[in-house]
Amino acid sequence: RPLIERNLKQAEVPDVCTVLHNERGTAPGMWFEKNGKVYVSLPGVPHEMKGLMTKQVLPKLKLLFDTPFIEHRTLLTAGVGESFIAETIKDWEASLPTHLKLAYLPNYGMVRLRITGWATDKEKLDQELDRQFASLKNLVQQWLVTDQDETLQMTLSRLLRAKNKSMSTAESCTGGYIAHLITAIDGASSNYKGTVVSYDNEIKTQILKVSPETLRSVGAVSEEVVREMAEGAIMIMNTDYAVAVSGIMGPEGGTPEKPVGTVWIAAGSRDKIVAQKFQFKFDRLRNIEMTAVTALNLLRKFIIENG
Fold it and tell me: In angstroms, how far apart are the furthest CA atoms of the chain?
């Protein structure tokens, strides 16, 4: 494409800077040095800024300055709120030395806890972090999903690979969002076969083989229906495990008996299915996200407890 005046203005830089080539866009980064200090100007687009930071800024800073070692230990919990965790571990957290800090990173029914430490002796720092991390894991053991810096779906995928097992999903209210989370993982095809998005009851009966009588008697948002959905998913996709969801995401569609946010989730295998009712109280998008992560965690716990 021809260069326009705006492109030319983007390429202008002060003559006292070192130009940092932007491989991901047209706006360059700029590196300034004065009186022993470094100033860096970067594009505001996150993708471009991250590329420049990773490939150019951080390597140049490491050459100029002696910096301490910074190490992290991260775990993921589910099924408990940030404030309850904070109350549970308050004595442990208060006893942390000043060069170790704990961060709470909550997100949709999960809380990630990250210990960050910095020191000039990497070996001693690693030993201290490992010791403190072991204590933290022990305190939150009942809610612990993983002691690695990974997502819930990554943990579930790793668990399935370790057992050489497969899974499928049957989704109504989430509309394929659970499948999206799983297939975003590299290598998901090794243990995930697919989903049936049975948004309409006709799909539930014709494909997942949910009984029409069950739908008439108790409705789509019920324990009986999600159990049959999970059984159908296992059967038609020939998997070891399945998870199924049906609910009312809102903002309309609720009743006094089944208000908006009511969700039934079933997870299990050919031999056993468990089901649980949840009541979420958020907007439509967050209800979908909460349902998806809750379903994945229910299946994770089922696999661990039942093999």
Answer: 80
Sign of CA pseudo-dihedral 279, 110, 268, 274: negative
CB-CB contact of 228 with 219 (8 Å): no
| CA atoms of 231 and 205, how far apart (whole Å) | 12
SS (H, E, C) 176-202: CHHHHHHHCCCCHHHCEEEEEECCCHH
* Total-model pTM: 0.85
**pLDDT tens digits for 153-191?**
999 999 999 999 999 999 999 999 999 999 999 999 999
Type of residue found at 159: L
Among residues 143, 169, 173, the alpha carbon closest in space to that of 250 is found at: 173
Helix (H, G, I), strand (E, B) or coil at 258: coil
Burial pattern 188-224, b for ≥16 Cβ within 10 A else e, equals beebbbebbbbbebeebbebbebeeebbeeebbbbbb
Give the three-class secondary structure for 155: helix
In which residue are the tokens 């076969």 written?
A: 193
pLDDT digits 0-9 by tens, 48-103: 999 999 999 999 999 999 889 999 999 999 989 999 999 999 999 999 999 999 99
Q: Return the closest-CA partner of residue 291 out of 251, 233, 244, 227.
A: 244
Phi, psi of 33 (to 5 degrees): -130, 135
